[in-house]
Amino acid sequence: MMWKSLILLPFLASPLGAQQVTSAPGGVLRALDKTSGQTTDIELISGQSATLGTLQIVMSDCRYPAGNPAGNAYAALEISERGKSGTVFSGWMIASSPALSAMEHQRYDVWVMRCTTS
């Protein structure tokens, strides 16, 4: 019985209809200060960092569906807080599903808006 599961494993590991993606030179994030209610758009080039209050945000990559720069963007981010060890967030954020991989912070929300192609 176990061998049947092993045979199916390669088919389950690869997503059906996987989409080709393109890396963009940068991306746009939106941040919300929950205390003041103010939103700020942050445009970053891949590898660049930005400061938002006590947060340090680094975007290492932004990707979008090949041939559709206006399509669903997702970005690799690392967000840390000055004066605290470790990271607040490290991973991929998806524009169409910000709650799927959300940053947990008492004051700020950050999410991906889109990739930039120029």
Could you characterize what this model shows?
The protein is mostly beta strands and 118 residues long. Helices cover 10% and strands 48% of the residues. Strands 1, 4, 5, 6 and 7 form a 5-stranded antiparallel sheet that branches. A 3-stranded antiparallel sheet has the order 3-2-8, with no helix packed on it. The longest helix has 12 residues. The N terminus is likely disordered.
Spell out the blueprint of helices and strands.
Layout: H1 2-13, E1 21-24, E2 26-33, E3 39-45, E4 49-52, E5 55-65, E6 74-81, E7 89-94, E8 108-116
Antiparallel strand pairs: 1-5, 2-3, 2-8, 4-5, 5-6, 6-7
* Helix content, binned percent: 10-25%
Distance between the termini: 54 Å
> What is the overall number of helices?
1
Radius of gyration: 17 Å
- Write down the overall mean pLDDT: 84
Task: Provide the β-strand percentage band.
Answer: over 45%
Low-confidence stretches: 1-16
User: How many strands, which pairing sense, and closed or not: the largest β-sheet?
Assistant: 5 strands, antiparallel
Shape label: globular
Concise synopsis of the structure shown:
By secondary structure, the protein is mostly beta strands. It has one helix spanning 2-13; strands at 21-24, 26-33, 39-45, 49-52, 55-65, 74-81, 89-94, 108-116.
